[in-house]
Amino acid sequence: MFRGSTVATIDDKGRLKVPTDFRRALEERFGAEFFITSVAGDHALVYPLPVWEEIESRLAALPATDRIKERYLERVLDGQGRLLVPTILRSSASMSGEVVVSARIDHLVVWNRERFEKRLTEHPFSDEDFSLLSERGI
Question: CA spacing 20 to 30 A to 96: which of 28, 83, 88, 135?
Answer without folding.
Answer: 28
